[in-house]
Structures are given as C-alpha cells and as structure tokens.
Amino acid sequence: MHNMRLASTIGIILTTLIVVWASGIAMSSSSGASLPWAVYDQSLYLSGFLSISLMSLTMLLAIRPAWLETPLGGTRPDVSPA
Predict the structure, then answer these.
(1) Which residue from 58, 59, 76 is spatially nearest to 67, judged by alpha carbons?
(2) What one-character DSSP code corresponds to residue 80?
(3) Nearest one of 11, 14, 8, 2 to 49, comparing CA atoms
(4) What's the predicted TM-score (pTM) here?
(5) What does the pLDDT look like over 36-59, one tens digit per residue?
(6) Is the pLDDT of residue 1 over 60?
C-alpha cells in the first residue's frame, strides 16, 4: 500500500513536469531547425529540466519535513528531548 502511494505520487510529479515541459515547446525558438536537431534540442532541455527538478525533489525528501511524512506513508521516529 505504501509503495503504491509513493509510486503514484512520483508518477504524478513526473507527469506534471513533462506537461510543463511540453507546454514550453510552443514557445521554443528552434522551430526553424530540421527535425533531428529540434528533437535533439528538446530532449536536451527535457533531460536537464527533469534532472534539476528531481534533484530538488530529492533534497525536499532528504530533509524529511513532518508535513510530508504522513501523506507519503513514511515513519517519523519519535524524538524525545534529551
């Protein structure tokens, strides 16, 4: 159950990122290029966009904010004051 929730959350995030990238294609300046170069440019932009976005998501998950633990099915250890 928890893995399914996490997988669907990551799928939704990836889908949202790809939709945002695809909406930027219309504003692209490589419309005068031949098809192979246009595909190359767009794949280069997509890989960079996805890598920066997923690294940001990884950093967000690495700090383990309390508000994000429960929705993603994580467990936050009880921290007692020393």
Answers:
(1) 76
(2) -
(3) 14
(4) 0.67
(5) 888 888 889 889 999 999 999 889
(6) no
Closest by CA position to 61, among listed 53, 19, 20: 53
Residue 64 makes CB contacts below 8 A (sequence gap 6+) with 74, 76
What single-letter amino acid sits at 55?
A: M
Residue pair 41/30 in contact (Cβ under 8 Å)? The answer is: yes
Phi, psi of 28 (to 5 degrees): -70, 150
The angle at the Cα of 54, spanning 63 to 64, to the nearest 5 degrees, equals 15
Residue type, 5: R
The most distant pair of C-alpha atoms in the chain lies apart, rounded to whole Å, by 65
Asked whether the beta carbons of 10 and 77 are under 8 A apart, the reply is no
Tokens of 1: 């159950």
